Amino acid sequence: MKKLVIILLVVCLAFAAVAGYLLGKGVVSSDTETGEEPAQETSAPTAEPVEAETLDYDAIYALHDPDETVMIIDGQEINWGEYFSWLYMSAMQTEQYFVAMANYGMPLSWNDPVGEDASVTYASTALEGGENTLIQLMAILGFAQSNGVQANQETLDSIAEQVKSDMAATVGEDGTEEDFQEYLASLYRSRDAYDHTNMANFLNQQNFTETYGLKGEKVSDEQALAYLEENDYTYANHILLATMDLSTGEALDEETIAEKKAQAESLVEELNAIEDEEQLVERFRELKEEYCEDTGKTAFPDGYVFLPGEMVEEFENAALALEEYAVSEPVESPYGYHIILRLPLDADAVIAYSSTGEAMTAREYFANYDYSKKLDAYLAAMEAEYAPGFTPPELSDFLE
User: Fold this and answer.
1) Sign of the CA dihedral running 185, 191, 197, 201
2) Nearest residue to 20 (alpha-carbon basis) of 89, 82, 73
3) Which pTM was predicted?
4) How confident is the model at residue 399 (pLDDT cuts 50, 70, 90)?
C-alpha cells in the first residue's frame, strides 16, 4: 500500500513564508529537513529553557552604511541593508537551533564545526545561508524576467493582501505604515527589502502558472507521459483482501484467510472473462469498491502510480510482470491477497496529494520538475560576487 506523499503545488522559495520572517519564528531542526542528527542520544528537554550563545547584531549592522553596495548578483547591486536582513534571519534560525539543543543538554557555539570539516562552523554556515537565500531570491526575479513575466494585477492584489495580513499579524489591525516599518526595522529589514521578497514570492507563482497552469493543465500528454516513463513509474489498480487486521497488524484466523483466498480466486475468474478493456476497468472499479480493504482505496480509487520500491515487493513484482489490461492471479503479500490490474500510464492519473489535500497528477509532477530544473539552471548560470572592498563579517567575532 502506498503512502500519501506531501508535495508542494509549485516550486517554493528556498526560504520560509514572509509572515514567518515577520514573526521571527524560523527554526533549524535536526530532522529530515536538514539531514542531520544529533551527535549523541539526547534525553528529555530541561524543564526551564536555557540561554544560548548569541551575537551582537547591532554591532555587525553598524559595520556598513545600509545603502552601501556589498554584492552584485545577476548584474543587480545589493546594498548592505538587504544583505544584512537575510544574514540576520539566517543567524536567528541558528540561534533558535542553539536554544533547542541547549534544552536537551547539548550546548553549541558559533565556532563549533557543523560536520567533519572543522572550517565549516555554525558561524560560516549562517553567513552562507543568508547569502544563498538572497541569491535564490534574485534568481527567481531574474528567471521570471527572462521568461517575459511581469507582475499582473492578480499578483499585485495578492501582494497587497499579504501586506495587509502581515501588518495585522505584527502591528495589529489598527497599525499604521509607520508602525509596520518600525517593526521591520527591529528585524533589520527595510520596507523595500520586504517588498522585494513579496514580489519574488508571488512572481514565482505567476511565472509557474503562466508556463504550466495552476495545476499543470498546460502540460501536454506527451510531456507528462515521457516524465513517467523516464522515471520508471508503473500504473496499476488492485483489490486487496486483507489477511490481517490492518489496524492492529494481527493475522486473521486460518478459516477466514482461506475464505479470502477463495474470494480472490473467484474475482479473478470473473474479471478474466471480460474481453473489452473499458468494461474490464469499470468492472474492476466496481469490485474494488465492494471488496477492497486497502485503506488507500478512497484516495486512489483508480489505482496507484508508483516508483520502484514504493510498493510492497510482492505487489510490485507482480504488477511489472503483467501486460497492460491484464489481471493477475491472487498475489499474496504480508497484507493479504492482491488482485492486480496493470494499466497504461495516464497523464491525469493521481500520483499523490498536496499538503492541502488536493490530488496531484503526472502533469503537475512534470510541471514542478521542469520548472525546478529550469530555475536551477538559471541559478547555476548566475554571477554573484562581492562588491570591491567588501569582506563579509566574521560572525564569531561579535559574540555578546
Assistant:
1) positive
2) 89
3) 0.79
4) very high
- Distance (Å, whole) CA 125 – CA 110: 9
The rounded distance, in Å, linking the Cα atoms of 72 and 383 is 8
Q: Grid coordinates in use for 328? A: 493477475
Domains within the chain, CATH numbers bracketed:
18-37+51-218+374-386 (no CATH), 234-344 (3.10.50.40)
Q: Which helix (H) or strand (E) holds 360?
A: strand 359-361
Cα three-residue angle 265-270-273, rounded to 5 degrees: 125
Residue 89 has pLDDT above 90, yes or no: yes
Q: What are phi and psi of 223, to 5 degrees?
A: -65, -45
Q: Which amino acid is at 270?
A: E
Which residues sit opposite 304 in a β-bridge?
Answer: 236
Residue with cell 489481471: 327
280 close to 325: Cβ distance less than 8 angstroms:
yes
Cα(366)–Cα(348) distance, integer angstroms:
11
